[in-house]
Design goal:
This protein is α+β, with helices and mostly antiparallel strands. It is built from six helices and four strands.
Length: 211
Amino acid sequence: MNLKESYRYHNYLESLMVGAARYLSTPGNVMNVKSEHMRKKVNPDAEDETLDASAERTIQCEDNNQMIDFLVAVCNERCALALAVERAKQDFKAVCYDAELFSNRCRQTVASTLKRLADIKSTERITTGTAYKFNAEGNQIQYRYDVKEIATIDFDRKKAKEIARKFSQEANEVSDRLDHAMLEATVVFDPRFSLDDSFEEAFLNFINKED
């Protein structure tokens, strides 16, 4: 697989781990709950009854130890994939992938900030203020008056636009270079799970192979 495919597989493995953790964190999935209705003790004419109060399990899992094994297997798969990806990155000749990626995120953050800044314009508006005064009878009364509010930009808009444009262009060029590297780099790894499988399908395939 190439680097881009490895990231897609990594995200899939993460979703499997989330699904397994959510299943094991749901009490109704991991507890067998029975409620004994002891009616006969207070009503000789009634019968005692035992009911299963457990919630229906969300997937077909007869042995929760298998779900634990599945969670561990997915975790191990993610760890092994991470090492394979790191080895693939070390084979890059012209691209320091992680450093380039970090630098590009910095450029994109700066460009986005300065683009928003460059869109700011000086404004002028009329609002209403209130104050108090004494009238002829000596009573304090409130009165309203106009307030002219003038907001003037306190930066060089042209400079902000130029830097934003420069950083955006550099970020696009680096993104293209990283995309090319992701397609060219080979991650030597044999996936254990199929991206086409849902969480339940991945779990059932796992336990069937384990048997």
